[in-house]
């Protein structure tokens, strides 16, 4: 699923589809062992990965022999980023990956350009808070609108702040992408969208990701305008994850207290790492991963304990199965940010909200910094009360959580 629609999300929510899928995979593991398990899927060779060692093996083996550019991903993402790194060939991938890592400053917990970006982030939070106070509460529509505006400002700067057409074009292309092979390409819309991205990249406004993009290494084969749509698209997942984190903190006062302690005395307008809130966002992503299916495709035959897996086989790693496997993870259905404070080893039970190995999300540090800053501001400046009891800490957390329906009552907090 490339874009989640409110109606479909409500349906999935009601069916508790993810919880049922985890149960089914647990049952299959009991019956058939540790996998990988071959599925009978007409016209397609497909296996499901069922053990942590195999998850690590597959993700560490990208792009060869386990390639990220699967047939499904190529069919969907080509609707708006045909030369994107995620669907690039083994030959094209390294330089596009290098470009992404340089512009997103992947290896730094806080992007080295964060100082300027924080001005934009904080200003957009100020605007959101004004709307919150006028409405007397926080609702998805306001959060989403300001989030999208913030993403355009951080990525391209003030010249794109009100370019809503850009966001709408990407949304329409993603809606077509939902239908992968079945939907005709929207060539006109794609051309308009990619031209607009190019226009904003050419402006390279200082203090934005576009400025970093202009400084990143490129060749004639990099196609920066095809890399950036993935960023805009992925920032959307962060919107969901951060709003759900607010829901978790509003319904878990003990954790909200710890988060506020961690924030005490900090100036969120200055670049800094916020470890506790980062862990809270990671927990939201563990409980409700925004990329539930991590897919790879074999480029050659590989040997496994139970026999060979041939070339051109799809390998499915279903993240909720590992994140919510209550037969192995004690805190499977609880909100436990401390899970992320622990050092992890290869043999550990895998939590992979950002994938792992050479194809791991190069935007993870940037996005954890942005989300934790936004949540930090809201948490220190308002009391948030969730308007229903979906996330009661005395009960197992639900298998799915539709963010569109979360509403908060808000009260100003006394200045610290
Ligand atoms: C909460 C937010 C995010 C989550 C959960 C997330 C998760 C992921 C995951 C699971 C993958 C691997 C997909 C696969 O192997 O099929 C991925 C790849 C990627 N992500 Fe993110 N992402 C997020 C936000 C971002 C942001 C904000 C950016 C950029 C600003 C970004 C840039 C990328 C890129 C460029 C790739 C492709 C990497 C490659 O193929 O080498 N992501 N992300």
From TrEMBL:
Pfam families: p450
UniProt superkingdom: Bacteria
Signal peptide: none
Family assignment from sequence similarity: Belongs to the cytochrome P450 family.
Protein name stated in the entry: Cytochrome P450
Organism (species): Kocuria aegyptia
């Amino acid at each position: 699923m490339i874009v989640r629609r409110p109606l479909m999300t409500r349906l999935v929510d009601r069916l508790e589809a993810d919880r049922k899928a985890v149960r089914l995979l647990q049952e299959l593991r009991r019956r058939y062992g540790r996998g990988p398990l071959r599925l009978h899927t007409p016209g397609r060779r497909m296996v499901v990965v069922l053990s942590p060692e195999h998850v690590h093996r597959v993700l560490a083996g990208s792009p060869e022999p386990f390639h990220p550019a699967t047939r499904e991903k190529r069919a969907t993402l080509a609707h708006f980023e045909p030369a994107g790194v995620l669907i690039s060939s083994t030959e094209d991938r390294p330089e596009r990956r290098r470009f992404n890592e340089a512009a997103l400053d992947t290896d730094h917990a806080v992007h080295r350009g964060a100082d300027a970006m924080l001005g934009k982030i904080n200003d957009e939070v100020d605007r959101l808070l004004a709307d919150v106070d006028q409405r007397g509460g926080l609702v998805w529509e306001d959060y989403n609108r300001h989030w999208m505006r913030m993403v355009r400002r951080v990525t391209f700067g003030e010249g794109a702040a009100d370019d809503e057409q850009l966001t709408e074009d990407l949304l329409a292309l993603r809606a077509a992408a939902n239908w992968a092979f079945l939907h005709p390409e929207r060539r006109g819309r794609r051309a308009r969208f990619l031209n607009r991205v190019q226009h904003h990249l050419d402006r390279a406004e200082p203090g934005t990701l576009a400025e970093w993009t202009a400084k990143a290494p490129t060749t004639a084969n990099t196609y920066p305008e095809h890399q950036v749509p993935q960023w805009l698209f992925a920032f959307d997942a962060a919107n969901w994850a951060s709003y759900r984190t607010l829901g978790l903190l509003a319904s878990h006062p003990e954790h909200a207290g710890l988060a506020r302690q961690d924030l005490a005395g900090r100036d969120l307008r200055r670049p800094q790492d916020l470890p506790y809130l980062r862990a809270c966002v990671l927990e939201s992503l563990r409980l409700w991963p925004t990329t539930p299916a991590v897919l790879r495709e074999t480029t050659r035959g590989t040997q496994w304990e139970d026999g060979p897996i041939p070339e051109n086989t799809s390998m499915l790693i279903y993240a909720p199965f590992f994140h919510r496997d209550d037969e192995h993870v004690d805190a499977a259905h609880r909100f436990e940010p401390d899970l992320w404070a622990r050092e992890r080893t290869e043999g550990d039970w895998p939590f992979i909200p950002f994938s792992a190995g050479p194809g791991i999300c190069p935007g993870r540090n940037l996005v954890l910094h942005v989300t934790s800053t936004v949540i930090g501001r809201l948490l220190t400046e308002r009391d948030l009360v969730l308007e229903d009891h979906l996330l009661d800490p005395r009960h197992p957390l639900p298998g799915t959580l539709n963010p569109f329906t979360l509403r908060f009552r808000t009260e100003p907090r006394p200045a610290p």
